[in-house]
Amino acid sequence: MIQPLLPDSRVLICRPEPSASELAKVLQSVGAECEVLPTLLIKPLELNAQARQKVIDIDQYDHVIVVSQHAATLGLSVIDEYWPQFPINQSWFAIGRKTSNVLKPANLELIEPNKDLSSEALLKISELKDVKNKKILILKGKEGRNKLELELSARGATVDTIELYERICPIYSSAELEASLVTFNPNYIVALSGETLLNLIKLSQSANIDLHNKALILSSERVANIAREHGLNLIYIANNLMPMDIIRCIAKARKAIH
User: Fold this and answer.
1) Distance between CA atoms of 75 and 194, rounded to whole angstroms?
2) Which 8-state DSSP code applies to residue 219?
3) Do the beta carbons of residue 138 and residue 148 sit within 8 Å?
4) How far does CA 58 lie from the centroid of its chain?
5) In angstroms, rounded to a whole number, what is the distance separating the alpha carbons of residues 110 and 212?
6) Where a domain ends, among 110, 142, 167?
7) End-to-end CA, the chain
8) pLDDT, one tens digit for every residue, the chain (258 residues)
9) In this structure, are 16 and 112 located in the same domain?
10) CATH code assigned at 98
11) Angle, to 10 degrees, between the axis of helix 49-56 and the axis of helix 69-82?
12) Pick from 247, 28, 220, 86: nearest CA to 235
C-alpha cells in the first residue's frame, strides 16, 4: 500500500475560489486534511467607455498579456461581445498555466508558459525583449502590480491596460475565523499572493488570532518579505504554483518542523 505523502497534515487554503477547492481536492488525495478560507474575492467590474473602446480596437495591438485566470475568463467574455471571431496576427501571453488553459479554447496565437510565470519571468522571454514601437494591451485586475506596464514602457512599447475585476477582502465573523484558524488548527496555511496574505493577517488580527506558530506556504520571496514584515517567520516558498509544487513545499516544511 502506498503511503500518503502528507499524513496528519492540516492545511488551510486561503486562495480565491475556485482555486482553493481545486487545490484542496489534490491535497486531500495525498492524505492532507484541508479546509478553505478564501481571503480574496474576485468581483467583476463594469467597463467604462474607454475600456470598451480598447476592446473594439484590440486588433491594433501587437501583443496581449493576460495576467490571471480571472482576467482571461472576463476578458474573453467581453471581447466576444464585440468580436464574433478573435482578431489574428497577435501574440497572446499568459501568466500562469491556469490562465493559459482558459485562453486555449479561443484558438489564439498563445505563447504558453512551460511553468507558472511571474511578471518578472515573463519579461525575460525573448518575444518581449525587443518591443520598441509595439502596442501592448494588458488584461488585469484593478490596482494589480504595474511591473509589466512600467518595464515594457521603458523598453519603448505603448502599453494600455483594461482592469476587468477588483480583489476585495471578504467579511468573516469571529466565529468563522475561529473555526478555521483555531478549531481546525492548521499546521500549514497556503497564501499564494501578497494580497491574500495581507488579508489573512488583517482578518486574524480582527479576531485576535495569533498566526506565529503556523507554517506559511508562500509563492515568492516578495510575499515572504510581507510575512517577515509582520513578524511571521515560519515561511516556506514553493518553487511554482502547480499543486505538485505546493505538495513538495508542504512535505519540505513537514520534514523541517518534525
Assistant:
1) 23
2) S
3) yes
4) 25
5) 42
6) 167
7) 23
8) 456 788 889 999 999 988 899 999 999 999 999 999 999 999 999 999 999 999 999 999 999 999 988 999 999 999 999 998 888 788 999 887 888 889 988 888 888 666 556 777 788 887 888 899 999 999 999 876 688 899 999 999 999 999 999 999 999 999 999 999 999 999 999 999 899 999 999 999 999 999 999 999 999 999 999 999 999 999 999 988 889 999 999 999 998 876
9) no
10) 3.40.50.10090
11) 80
12) 220
9 close to 31: Cβ distance less than 8 angstroms:
yes
Answer with the one of 147, 167, 187 that is the final residue of a domain: 167
C-alpha Rg value of the chain to the nearest Å? 20
Question: Grid coordinates in use for 135?
Answer: 502596442
At 10, list the grid cell: 492540516
In a domain, 95, yes or no: yes
Three-state DSSP class for 75? Answer: helix
Gap between the Cα atoms of 204 and 191, Å rounded: 13
Cβ burial 5-17 (10 Å sphere, 16+ → b, else e):
bbeebebbbbbbe
DSSP 11: E
Which strands sit side by side in the sheet containing 135-141, from one edge to the other?
41-44, 158-168, 135-141, 63-66, 91-94, 110-111
Cis peptide before 105 (omega within 30 of 0): no
In the chain, what's the furthest Cα-to-Cα distance?
A: 60
Angle at 172 between CA 205 and CA 211, to 5 degrees: 30
Q: What's the sign of the alpha-carbon dihedral 47, 50, 51, 53?
A: positive
Closest CA relative to residue 11, chosen from 24, 26, 30: 24
Whether residue 26 is found in the same domain as residue 92:
no
Q: Which domain holds residue 253?
A: 10-40+170-257
